[in-house]
Specification:
The structure holds two protein chains of two kinds. By secondary structure, chain A is α/β, with parallel strands linked by helices. In chain A, 47% of the residues lie in helices and 20% in strands. Chain A contains 21 helices and 20 strands. The longest helix of chain B has 20 residues, at 94-113. By secondary structure, chain B is mainly α. In chain B, helix 4 (39-49) packs antiparallel against helix 7 (94-113). Chain B has one domain (4-113): Four Helix Bundle (Hemerythrin (Met), subunit A). Chain B is elongated, with a radius of gyration of 14 Å. Classes of the chains: A alpha/beta, B mainly alpha. Chains A and B meet through helix 1 of A and helix 3 and helix 5 of B.
Chain lengths: 560, 114
């Protein structure tokens, strides 16, 4: 019998027979006892007692309708009104035609007529009823996500396809919704509050679906899928979610992102429609102020293009497709601007796409961590170039290189740079490290530690893109930085907008007060340069002076 | 002692009745033996005497289920007949129908105790 342990169909089911006539009970018992464990009740009262005691183990109830005391109808109604009992299938025993309809309406699973027909038939009907009810129960358990009460993913796709079959003419949308920075909520507040957020988001989605035709599931941790009759606008859903979450967790401000593949084409398979919605949602990453995106085919081309870039990076490194360009920086504290350093900037001369701008590939590599490999490549190439310039006595300028946030988490970053410099006969004072302001947002303690280590090794630190992100001013009091590099968006408007000019003046004063050197990049026209000079900015960089140049051109233009 | 043969002679379709209890003759005969003591007969008789046709129907209906399950014709035939009249609340001769039923019940009791 051990063979049957893994097959629950062979486990003995318990069947309760309720009939006031002993003869009827015994006849049914004789029919069923070989296949089931049969227990009996002689009236409705006794039946209810037994059911209360052992409902978890009851597979089926055979219920006579006409009995003294509470009759079959009463028992059936009581069972169906109780959540924990209503799943037990009830087969009604009756000889009355009209009663059958009434019982089925009350929730009976089936009925058996008196006088009883062939025992084979009755056994088959009882088995079938139990099987159906167990299947339904398994589905009930697994079709829903326990945390949110929404469908689980597998059932969701199945039901979405069913929706399509019965809704041939209606237009539908595939919607992907995710909670931005959910992993941070998880890390900062722990599992409990994070689950609470998901529960509240799920509740809001369910509420939204009460008035609109649609279904939803939780797909991955913080990703929700909604398949819904076409909606013109989803901002109500976002408002509802934010309201629900902040009503319970007032200290949380969560941001949800919605990607929509609208008016889904019926020839596109269900999963693909949600991939499109996902592509749309991904375009919102990091874009503050915009939380809904509708898919357009260009997005897919873009994401395919980005996939190509990702798969090409290793070959590109091997084939030297990445080139380092240098943009000069000038000190403007004297009468004439004096070349004082340069910034190393990467360009990609792709074998197929030609010269690719950094803002096309850097964000892609930042997202998946490949930026570490590229950063190290650029550092190495820059240092080698600097050695070459020194050997030929062209330049001894310090050059700054970009450091991505993820680099700072590498334990051996500092050692890597020092080794590389040493191999080329250079020292840490020869290169500056530009760290973008947006790096200073989530885990400042660890960053301060990493930056202090670099400082201790003799590197100078430049905070890049200052004013572009959301870091508070006190970041610059906490960070041991040497240079503050103003975001180029300020410089763009400095000669047009009084307010911007005011802010820049304040930042310059603040930098002076803290003993930090002020750098302005993106200086494109003379008035910008003049304003910066008049207001005490010390170093400038931009097209007004020179665009970034390949090493050889840089050398030709700026060597004495 | 009650036997299948005696029941056949009484008019019972013992083949169908036995099949219903999976051919368990002993069980079948034991169940048949409980019939003469079934409270349904007394309840039916009393309800008819009181002219309470609703209670009479309930009692007859219960009896019908049991007797038909055991295929105890001709007794079951008479009970089916009275049940249908009671269901329709016909102006029928319930007294003589009841007498007929009791007579058949007595005969069955003799078979049971022989």
């Amino acid at each position: 019998m051990n063979d049957n342990f893994n097959d629950i169909q062979h486990l003995n089911r318990i069947v309760l027979i309720v009939d006031d006539e002993a003869v009827n009970r015994e006849i049914l018992g004789a029919m069923l006892e070989e296949e089931f464990t049969v227990i009996f009740a002689a009236d409705g009262e006794e039946a209810m007692d037994i059911i209360e005691d052992s409902y978890r183990r009851l597979s089926c109830i055979l219920l006579d309708l006409v009995m003294p005391g509470p009759d079959g109808f009463t028992v059936l109604k009581r069972l169906k009104s109780r959540n924990e009992l209503k799943h037990i299938p009830v087969i009604v025993l009756t000889s009355e035609q009209e009663a059958e309809v009434k019982c089925l309406k009350l929730g009976a699973a089936d009925f058996i007529k008196k006088p009883y027909s062939d025992p084979e038939v009755i056994r088959a009907r009882v088995s079938r009823t139990i099987e159906l009810s167990e299947d339904r129960e398994y589905i009930r358990v697994v079709q829903k996500d326990e945390l949110t009460g929404l469908y689980s993913r597998q059932f969701f796709y199945e039901y979405a396809r069913t929706m399509d079959i019965y809704n041939k003419d209606g237009e539908t949308d595939a919607v992907v919704l995710d909670v931005e920075h959910f992993h941070l909520i998880n890390e900062m507040y722990g599992r409990g509050p994070a689950d609470e957020v998901l529960f509240l988001v799920g509740g809001a989605i369910r509420e939204f679906l009460e008035t609109t035709e649609g279904i939803a599931c939780r797909s991955d941790a913080d990703i929700f899928l909604i398949y819904i009759r076409h909606q013109a606008d989803y901002s109500e859903l976002i408002k509802l979610i934010e309201k629900k979450v902040s009503a319970v967790l007032s200290s949380f401000h969560i941001r949800v992102r919605i990607g929509v593949y609208e008016k889904a084409m019926s020839n596109i398979v269900m999963e693909q429609r949600f991939s499109y919605a996902r592509v749309a949602s991904n375009t919102l990453r990091g874009k503050y102020g915009k939380d809904i995106a509708f898919y357009d085919p260009g997005m897919s081309e873009r994401s395919i293009y980005q996939e190509h870039l990702i798969s090409d990076i290793h070959g590109a490194l091997k084939n030297n497709e990445f080139e380092v360009y240098y943009q000069p920086k000038f000190r403007i504290t004297g009468d004439e601007p004096v070349l004082c350093s340069a910034e190393a900037l990467v360009r990609w001369r792709h074998y197929e796409y030609g010269l690719i701008k950094p803002d096309e590939f850097l964000p892609v590599f930042e997202k998946n961590g490949l930026i570490r490999i590229l950063d190290r490549y650029v550092w190495k190439k820059t240092i080698e170039q600097m050695r070459e310039w020194r050997e030929r006595a062209v330049f001894t300028l310090p050059v700054s290189v970009n450091v991505s946030r993820i680099d700072l988490y590498d334990e051996d970053m500092c050692e890597y740079l020092l080794d590389c410099l040493k191999e080329n006969g250079l020292a840490s004072e020869d290169i500056y490290l530009e760290i973008t302001e947006s790096a200073y947002t989530d885990d400042n303690d660890q960053l301060i530690k990493a930056i202090n280590k670099l400082k201790a090794a003799g590197f100078k630190i430049e905070m890049d893109d200052f004013g572009s992100g959301y870091s508070s001013l006190n970041v610059i009091t906490e960070m041991p930085i040497d240079f503050l590099k103003l975001d180029m968006n300020f410089i763009k408007r400095i000669n047009e907008d009084e307010k911007v000019l005011h802010i820049v003046k304040l930042i310059i004063d603040m930098a002076k007060f803290m003993g930090v050197t002020m750098v302005a990049e993106g200086v494109e026209v003379e008035p910008q340069y003049e304003i910066l000079r008049e207001n005490g900015c010390e170093i400038v960089q931009g097209f007004y002076f020179s665009k970034p140049l390949p090493a050889m051109e840089f050398e030709i233009c700026f060597a004495d | 002692m009650i036997t299948i043969e005696a029941l056949k002679e009484f008019g019972t379709d013992t083949d169908t009745g036995l099949k219903r209890v999976m051919g368990k003759e002993e069980l079948y005969l034991r169940l048949v033996k409980t019939i003469p003591q079934n409270e349904g007969f007394a309840k039916l008789e009393e309800a008819l005497e009181n002219n309470d046709l609703n209670s009479a129907f309930e009692a007859a209906h219960g009896l019908k289920g049991v007797l038909c399950n055991l295929e105890l014709s001709p007794l079951s035939d008479r009970v089916v007949e009275i049940t249908e009249h009671l269901r329709a609340k016909d102006d029928a001769d319930y007294r003589s129908m009841m007498e007929e039923i009791l007579k058949l019940k007595d005969r069955l009791e003799q078979i049971c105790n022989s």
